[in-house]
Each structure stands twice: as C-alpha cells, then as structure tokens.
C-alpha cells in the first residue's frame, strides 16, 4: 500500500478562463475597463476579414463591458461598425446576465430581460448594414432573437444570414445548436441533423467539428440523464468528427473549447479517444467538464488515459 501511495500521480494543476492568447486584445480589454474604447475599435477593425477572431474579440470585450452598454452605445454613435457591433454585443450580454441561467424565470425579470435584449437589435443591424460581408453581427443577433422569443422562421433567417457569409463560424454554430434544442422550443432531430451538417462542412482542424459532442451534452441535459447514455450510440460519428479536428494543426480561438468538448464526451464513455484531446487541452478546462462531473472527472480521465 505504501508503494501505491508513493507512485500515485499528483492531481494536475488546471486553469480556467480564456483558452486563446491574444495580447493586443488583453490591452484593449484593460483600456475598455478604464473607460477608453480606442484600442477596442482598433482590435476589432483589424480582424474584419477574420470572423473567428472577430467573434472571439467581440465576446471578450463585451463580457468585460457588462454594465456599460449605454456608454458604449454613446461612443459608437451611428457610423462606426466596430463599436456598433460591440454595443449590441454588450447589450445582449447584459440582458442574459439579468435573466440568469434558470430554465424558468419570473414574469417581471423576463420583461426586464426582453426589454434590455431589444436594445441590442438596432446597433447590431446597423453594424450589419455598414459591413455587409461581416457574419459577426448576425452571430450576435442569434441569442438576441432567441431571447426575444422570435418565431422559428425569424431565427432561421438570422442563421441564414450567418451561413451566407461564414457557415463554419464556431460561435454562431454553437448558438444555432442552442436555438434548435428542445429547451428553446426546438426539435432534437433538427438539432442532431444540424450538428451533422456542421461537422460535414467544417474543414480539417476546425473547432466546429466538436458541435456533435455539444449536441450529446444538450440531449443529456434535457433528459436529465448521464452524457454516456447518449454518447455511446453516437460513438462512431463522434470518433469521425474527432479525427477531423485532430487532422488540422492551425489553432483558432475556439479550438480549446473543441478539445474540451471531445475530451469530456469520450471520458464520459470511458473511451480512449479522449487521450489526444486531453493532451491538446494543456490542462485548460471549460464548462464541458461541468456536464460530466467537473474537475474530478477530468483528473480521473487524465489518470486513466495519459
């Protein structure tokens, strides 16, 4: 027994938070938190033709500016597509912060949430008009339309605008999957069909390939069942999607999310396909592990497969 204790691996030290290094974004966030938006405008303008990076930067900046939506809107005015995009993204995140994560909220909070979400519509549509090629304003409109209770046809139209410009934009693909979940009035068959189509459309190495793993998490959460119950029957197609991600070497802002999703879903099944994703994670955890037992599940997976 003493020998076993001496040779037992120590738990890995994990990190959380952002999984993509971006030094210029860090500087822009710091300036934004001090009330200055010049750097934010610059870092968004320089990636107008890089939608994965643009969507990531908008999300990080908007998260840092929750509570300052009115101020961002004032600075944005009516003719700045980058700050209009940021303004709408901040209003959206403020609204979802008001709502919270509960499946059902009270009538008063729902009314306040929808009123605030509606503030995001005008700046996002203005940003889309000013930069017609940009999919990111439409990606930001996806959760707004869902939160406002837009009809399915309207939400489909928002996704169609994204898909017309960049059908593999990972953040938008994730949001579309959420829209199609039963908890938001969607249909599981439609959700799974969309996930398979998204995997098929993703180039090798693209993080959107992990959307099929996310679909299994959504199915399990809706049924309040273990993830493995839904993942095991889908093992073959999950393995194919996993191989597609692993076939590429160029990292993208959502790559850490993708490796977390695959590692967690395979670990839940006790499947050794988790190993390359665990290595690629570099001990960076995100919310995927909350679906399968949290950090203890990650530590067990590392001990078993690495």
* Quaternary structure of the protein: single chain
Q: What is the total domain count?
A: 2
What does the overall shape look like? globular
* Fraction in beta strands: under 5%
Give a verbal description of the structure.
- The protein has 306 residues and is mostly helical.
- It folds into two domains: 21-166, Serine Threonine Protein Phosphatase 5, Tetratricopeptide repeat, CATH 1.25.40; 167-306, no CATH class.
- It is built from 18 helices and no strands.
- It has helices at residues 2-7, 23-33, 38-45, 51-64, 69-76, 81-99, 107-118, 121-130, 136-147, 152-165, 170-179, 188-201, 211-223, 227-231, 235-246, 255-269, 274-281, 294-305.
- The model is unreliable at 3-7 (pLDDT under 50).
What is the strand and helix layout of this fold?
Blueprint: H1 2-7, H2 23-33, H3 38-45, H4 51-64, H5 69-76, H6 81-99, H7 107-118, H8 121-130, H9 136-147, H10 152-165, H11 170-179, H12 188-201, H13 211-223, H14 227-231, H15 235-246, H16 255-269, H17 274-281, H18 294-305
Helix pairs in contact: 2-3, 2-4, 4-6, 5-6, 6-7, 6-8, 6-9, 8-9, 9-10, 9-11, 11-12, 11-13, 12-13, 13-16, 15-16, 16-17
Highlighted features:
single chain, 306 residues, mainly alpha, Serine Threonine Protein Phosphatase 5, Tetratricopeptide repeat, 2 domains, 18 helices, 66% helix, disordered N terminus
């Amino acid at each position: 027994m003493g020998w076993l204790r001496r040779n037992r691996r120590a738990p890995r030290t994990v990190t959380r938070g952002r999984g993509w290094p971006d030094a210029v974004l860090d500087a822009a966030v710091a300036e934004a938190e001090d009330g200055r938006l010049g750097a934010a405008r610059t870092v968004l303008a320089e990636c107008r033709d890089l939608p994965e990076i643009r969507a990531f930067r908008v999300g990080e900046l908007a998260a840092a500016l929750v509570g300052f939506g009115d101020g961002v809107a004032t600075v944005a005015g009516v003719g700045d597509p980058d700050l209009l995009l940021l303004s709408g993204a901040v209003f959206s995140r403020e609204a979802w912060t008001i709502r919270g994560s509960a499946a059902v909220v009270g009538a008063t909070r729902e009314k306040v949430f929808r009123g605030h979400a509606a503030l995001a519509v005008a700046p996002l549509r203005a940003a889309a008009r000013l930069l017609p090629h940009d999919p990111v304003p439409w990606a930001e409109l996806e959760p707004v339309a869902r939160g406002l209770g837009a009809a399915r046809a309207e939400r489909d139209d928002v996704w169609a605008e994204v898909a017309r410009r960049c059908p593999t934009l990972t953040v938008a693909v994730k949001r579309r999957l959420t829209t199609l979940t039963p908890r938001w009035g969607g249909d599981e068959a439609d959700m799974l069909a969309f996930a398979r189509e998204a995997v098929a459309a993703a180039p090798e190495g693209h993080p959107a390939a992990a959307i099929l793993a996310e679909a299994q998490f959504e199915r399990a959460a809706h049924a309040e069942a273990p993830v493995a119950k839904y993942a095991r029957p889908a093992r073959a197609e999950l393995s194919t999607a996993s191989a597609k991600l692993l076939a590429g070497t160029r990292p993208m802002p959502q790559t850490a999310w993708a490796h977390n999703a695959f590692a967690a879903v395979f670990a839940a099944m006790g499947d050794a396909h988790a190993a390359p994703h665990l290595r690629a994670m570099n001990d960076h955890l995100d919310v995927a592990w909350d679906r399968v037992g949290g950090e203890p599940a990650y530590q067990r997976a590392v001990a078993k497969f690495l």
